[in-house]
């Protein structure tokens, strides 16, 4: 069937940005007035019929959104994060860094003189700071919740359940399973009783040593509600914590190489600071779809 344009409201401003290839449609909506729906989000994130992105970030004042009003005193801005399929996500590390890049570039916020910039998410308020030309966000200390397994075509892989404000299953690969050979086109299998809200599933392998890092790894990720992506910030945090544990450490610096680039994770003092580039690549206006496009 030929796909047709759905009815739309008047065009709205947008930006397109990414952090290490994890890309987002950004909708500035300070007063929370846009009639944003799951169908509209999915249409905007469609890579052929929309702008395209792994997710959507609505830039809204915390006081104007029911999911963040309780954080308004601590964090003026709320990252209303949506997955590409139109579902909500609790948080997104690359999303937060890209969100802050947009706040800075658009003049909606600047770096505070007395500490990090706070941003509200559905997982709580996170702290963001400059790291030279890059942006770093404190993802909080990952919590390891026990073992689980993931299945991909041809393999059943042992992993660790990790909570980074959103759910992860991190699977270190045995030496005989090359990272590049994993088939991540289908959703990896996992126990729905362990992950009733779904999970981001990460796979990691050792990498060559990196100066300044205690551990270096390569990873791939299947993101809940999206599919395989070039990068996942919360996933890199989960992977870094598992990699350090595998090296017999609790704290340290981990270089995480993803298909979209490198993120540097620093775990210490109850925090996991994730640092890397965040870039706004385009701005413009776009009709906001009022209904899903037909298949």
UniProtKB/TrEMBL annotation:
GO terms for biological process: lysine biosynthetic process via diaminopimelate. The keyword Amino-acid biosynthesis applies. The record marks 168, 223 as: Could be important to modulate the pK values of the two catalytic cysteine residues. Its main location: cytoplasm. It is an enzyme of class 5 (isomerase). The lineage of its organism: Bacteria, Bacillati, Actinomycetota, Actinomycetes, Micromonosporales. Its EC number is 5.1.1.7. It catalyses: (2S,6S)-2,6-diaminopimelate = meso-2,6-diaminopimelate. It comes from Pilimelia terevasa. This is Diaminopimelate epimerase. Substrate binds at residues 22, 83, 93-94, 166, 200, 223-224, 233-234. The keyword Manganese does not apply. Keywords: Amino-acid biosynthesis, Cytoplasm, Isomerase, Lysine biosynthesis. The gene is dapF.
